[in-house]
Design brief:
single chain; alpha/beta; TIM Barrel; nine-stranded mixed β-sheet; S-adenosyl-L-methionine; 7-carboxy-7-deazaguanine synthase; queuosine biosynthesis
């Protein structure tokens, strides 16, 4: 019997693809390097300051065969960043399998709100207060990126940093709409707490996707 589209999505054989593009990574550890981005639709975390709210409703983004997504990405880069939305809403197993078999490094940007699926070369964990990460993802994170919207976010960042491994790289990143207000506070905080690094959304300064 032929599988329905929803069954294929549930199995990870299709994914709600919002957009895909080749650009420069703008944030965190790999900033400044070329990568192919795959943005998957669907997110119920619901950060009020999210700059891609159009990604939240998965039904707005067409289910696309995972093999097609993989083959397109491999034409552009051997580094592929999967983001969202919240990509772990869906099963990432087949997507990462195809990418890695094609010789690509797989990176994910996730809130960690759902269990990890897929095989990843780099995990950027960006926790959100409204829906905290599942416990098992903390020790797997290569990079912790905490968004600073107000002063209370420093305490939240420290709480999250206490749960990741010693090797995890720690970043504080100002939320874009309040960057002018928060950057001086972040700079001061990092100078007093040098285990942290500053991350900026450099792609926005460069005016690229």
């Amino acid at each position: 019997m032929q599988k329905s589209t929803q069954e294929l999505v549930n199995l990870g054989e299709m994914l709600p693809l919002m957009e895909e593009f080749y650009t420069i990574q703008g944030e965190g550890y790999h900033k400044g390097t070329a990568a192919y981005f795959i943005r998957i639709g669907g997110c119920d975390v619901g950060c009020h300051w999210c700059d891609v709210k159009e990604s939240w409703n998965a039904e707005l983004h067409p289910p696309t065969h995972t093999d097609f997504i993989v083959n397109t990405a491999l034409k552009y880069s051997d580094v592929v960043v999967v983001t969202g939305g919240e990509p772990l809403t869906w099963d990432m197993t087949l997507l990462t399998k195809g990418l890695r078999e094609g010789g690509a490094k797989t990176h994910i940007e996730t809130s960690g709100a759902y269990s990890l699926s897929g095989e990843w070369d780099w995990i950027c964990l960006s926790p959100k207060k409204v829906k905290l990460p599942v416990a098992e993802i903390y020790p797997m994170a290569d990079e912790l990126k905490c968004i600073v919207y107000n002063k209370s976010d420093f305490a939240f960042a420290e709480e999250q940093a206490s749960k990741v491994s010693e090797d995890c790289i720690l970043y504080l990143q100002p939320e874009w709409s309040v960057r002018e207000k928060m950057i001086p506070l972040i700079v001061d905080y990092v100078m007093k707490n040098p285990k942290w690094k500053v991350s900026l959304q450099t792609h926005k300064y460069l005016n690229i996707p």
